[in-house]
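Annotated sample (chain length 402).
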Amino acid sequence: MNDKIKNVIKEYPDQFWLMAFGMLISTIGTSMIWPFMTIYATEKLGVGLAVVTGLLSFTSIITLLFSFIAGPIADKIGRKWVMVISLAGNGVCWILLSYANSLAAFAILMGLRGVFQPLYQIGSDAMMADMVLPEKRAQGYSILRMSNNLGVAIGPAVGGFVTSASYTLAFFLAATGLLTYSALLTFKAKETLRKDATIPDLNERFGGYGQVLNDRPFINFNLIYAFCFITASMIWVLLAVYAKQNFGIPEKIYGFIPTTNAIMVVTLQFFVTRLTVRRNPLFVMAIGAMFYAAASIIIGFGNGFWFFWLGMVVMTFGELIMVPTATTFSANLAPPDKRARYMSVHGMSHGISSSIGPFLGGTLNDSISPQAPWFAGGIISLFSGVLFVFLNKNAIKKTKIG
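Output written by the structure step:
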């Protein structure tokens, strides 16, 4: 086993492991607070769930818009500095959020987070693809997800107790993790964008996204993925406040639910990816969507902690299957000179779903019933699974015709 671990370590460059470590420490900090943001905002601002989820959707829309800008910038000036700026900017926003006492101040700072947030993910995905050969990318993305989720395994479990004592402390710990990672990249990381790469023209029509948007297989795949991820965004954003308001589950108890997700990713992601990487990615995505659907329906019928915990377990299996598959599929379709723009569009799939999911869930909660978002999420993921099957059939037909 030790020899296998050593071989895996040798397969990737030192900077890859720097990213994995930086992701770990930054995620420990931020995951102490983000699972509880809906609880914090509703109690701090004294507004309804629909308002808070609308605010989170507003942040996601800003993230979506700036994803378009981030891609060409990362393809021109490089990956490193957009990542550094993103992490530092987000760290400052977390500090300022601890002092926000009005809806307007909260909205402005959440909007700024939406500006900084896509820069890191796009730069990171592109840097990973720059450093790692295509046949190693699925495993590489899985390792980074394991690092991220190890942070999530620690963060919410600790954060449940920290936020029960002081939300301000949790905000400062989140900022500390982000600023530390930003400093590590500043002084330790090297730029991975090749000097001989084609320099994109930022004045090019549609910001250089014309080729990306005309890539029908890529766009169709990511649209369906975004549709499915609406369910996941509702679970991550709404479940904490749903569990507390309707079943009296406090933060320090709820924190073990996202921690379960993280532990599963840390312990299982590598092995699941080794199974899925050998199979048709579209078929794999369809199976993953079924897990998301089942998870949401379990939560809808649930009436206590263990039902919600089971829903998270089932959703996590879907996540283990879908997320590395989707990232690898998108990266492998991208030409090197437009890699960051391809990955920015892929990142927008999360932005689209995060814009729609929380607002849809909050509206259904306030206008119909607290259970309505979960049954809607189940239907959405079931339908997306069917769409992946049809996309796979169309791809097979075109291959035969060709």
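Annotation: The chain has 16 helices and no strands.
Annotation: The first helix runs from residue 2 to 11.
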